[in-house]
Write a structure and sequence with these properties.
With about 550 residues, this protein is of the alpha/beta class. About 45% of the residues lie in helices and about 20% in strands. It contains 15 helices and 15 strands.
Length: about 550
């Protein structure tokens, strides 16, 4: 669902205020083709032309949210995935105005047809006919009519949420009909380019930037498959920075050369690699095809291409047909997956502005939280190593390059309490972040709390242990133990937040990434308990 915020309501109100004033100008005040003074234009024709102007203006506006790195997105401080909702809503407004524009014209022509019959000069104005006695460039009318009806299906019906989620490739490729619609609209309406030139330039600039960014070489360093998930690890591209909680668009030319799909970055900005945990969404999906390709690549006969498989992770193009350097790989050998990245995207919260942080996630919604937990873990470890464990956390400043100690005045402080509430169907899902979570709770005087809930696992005695480890100090002595427990069922989100309520003068963050029912419950709890709420759902 769409989250209604104050900023969102402001944009909606401003849009409709502009729309009403814009329509009234073209309907009441504009002098079409210098018809004043002298001959007057009928009200139907004025309404049709005004609706046409509104449709073209909205078409120009909806181009701006399409650009992933639009200056408007940066200026408003929002993410592209949250701004794209305006593209969808403007798109449907545009289709409605186009249909209204055409319907009024058809009514106007029907009246003209009757008048022509009464005058003894009958003229037919059918749906796809050209009203040749009306104006000189009327041959574009049947063309734009045909293009519009195709657009209703390709850009309207196939964009419905359930359709684009179930058949994304169909939605993606059919959406390219918009290029035809824009070109024909500029051809049909001589002033249309006035409205569209800004959005087109922003879109072209964005495409060039994305092309340059995604052309940076990436090196796959680790690739594993587990139950229902794909784990990818790549060497971090040079001169690329991102924030914990952001996501990347991933392309694999081996299976879909033209498709780019968004996945959350699971590694910390301070790691020397970029990792992804990708859920397999089933057969005939991008993730399903990626899993099948990796499986076939990994299952190749060991005695034929062991050397090739090991070296191809780094540079497959230098191997000969016999597995030696200097040529092409054997014909029957499947080359390793080639991964291209376009990132970073998203506007995650600044975690160091909050004294308490609560993450509430469902299933694979843990992936953006993974990056933030790893970053917070690195910050806490660095502070522990630099100072005594009892040192107040109010003098630590953390950036993507690490932790540095500065005077306590005007610094970003470490949160005093960090809690993760993670709900998953199966216990195996917790293995995605198991090592990181164990490190979090094993720290002496740890600020981390971890609550795991498995909805399809029946637990005896309330809690079952997922894994128990003992952290070893440098001299080999046991320093602390960590137990990762999980419970059966679903959490009471309000009760989980009680001990995380910020004190007077503090700020508490509630970060939610999960199904809509979880988001709705968390929203009410955040409002009642005074948390700053950040919702992520990634439903593009």
């Amino acid at each position: 669902g769409t989250t209604i915020t104050f900023g969102y309501l402001n944009l909606v109100v401003l849009f409709w205020l502009w729309f009403v004033l814009f329509f009234l100008y073209w309907y009441h005040d504009h002098n079409f083709n210098t018809t004043w003074p002298g001959a007057t234009m009928g009200r139907l024709e004025q309404a049709a032309r005004a609706c046409g102007q509104c449709a073209v203006a909205i078409m120009g506006l909806l181009l701006f949210p399409v650009a992933r790195s639009s200056p408007f997105i940066v200026g408003m401080g929002v993410s592209w995935d949250s701004f794209i909702r305006f593209h969808r809503q403007l798109g449907y407004c545009c289709l409605v105005m186009c249909l209204t524009h055409m319907s009024i014209w058809w009514r106007h022509w029907k009246i003209l047809e009757k008048l022509a019959t009464l005058s003894g000069k009958p003229q037919s104005y059918r749906l796809f006919s050209v009203p040749s006695d009306y104006h000189g460039d009327n041959w574009t009318i049947p063309l734009i009519t045909l293009v519009f009806f195709v657009a209703v299906v390709a850009l309207g019906i196939l964009s419905f949420y359930k359709i684009r989620r179930a058949w994304f490739e169909l939605f993606y490729y059919s959406h390219h009909w918009s290029l035809v619609l824009i070109l024909v609209t500029i051809w049909h309406a001589s002033s249309a380019w006035y409205y569209m030139i800004g959005g087109i330039l922003v879109w072209i600039t964005d495409r060039v930037r994305r092309l340059v960014r995604s052309s940076q070489p990436t090196r796959l360093t680790k690739c594993t498959l587990s139950r229902g998930y794909i784990h990818l690890q790549l060497a971090a591209p040079k001169a690329t920075e991102f924030r914990a909680g952001q996501y990347a668009f991933l392309n694999c030319p081996n299976i879909a050369p033209l498709q780019w799909h968004p996945f959350s970055i699971c590694s910390s900005p301070t790691d020397n690699y970029i990792s992804f945990h990708i859920k397999d969404m089933g057969p005939n999906t991008f993730t399903g095809k990626l899993r099948d390709f990796i499986h076939r690549w990994q299952e190749q006969p060991q005695d034929i291409n062991t050397d090739y498989r090991e070296m191809s992770m780094f540079n497959a193009s230098h191997l000969s047909t016999s597995g030696c350097l200097g040529g092409s790989p054997p014909v029957d050998i499947i080359e390793p997956p080639l991964i291209r990245l376009d990132f970073p995207y998203g506007s995650p919260p600044d975690l160091f502005k909050f004294q308490t942080i609560t993450f509430v996630t469902g299933g694979v919604g843990i992936t953006p939280v993974s990056s933030m937990m790893r970053m917070l873990l690195g910050a806490v470890k660095s502070c522990k190593a630099a100072h005594s464990q009892s040192l107040p956390t109010g003098s630590a400043s953390f950036s993507s390059s690490g932790v540095k100690w500065v005077p306590a005045k005007n610094v970003q402080v470490l949160p005093r309490s960090i809690k993760l509430v993670w709900v998953a169907r199966m216990v195996e899902t917790f293995e995605l972040l198991e090592d990181t979570l164990l490190q979090c709770i094993a720290i002496n005087e740890t600020p981390f709390q971890v609550k795991l809930y498995a909805t399809r696992e029946h637990v005896t005695g309330g809690y079952n242990t997922l894994r128990r480890v003992r952290q070893q100090s440098e001299n080999g002595a046991t320093s602390s133990s960590a137990v990762l427990d999980y419970a059966h069922g679903r959490p009471n989100i309000r009760m989980e937040l009680i001990n995380m309520v910020p004190k007077a003068g503090e700020k508490g963050l509630l970060y939610v990434c999960g199904p809509q029912s979880m988001a709705n419950t968390a929203t009410i709890a955040a409002q009642d308990l005074g948390f700053t709420l950040h919702l992520e759902n990634f439903n593009l």
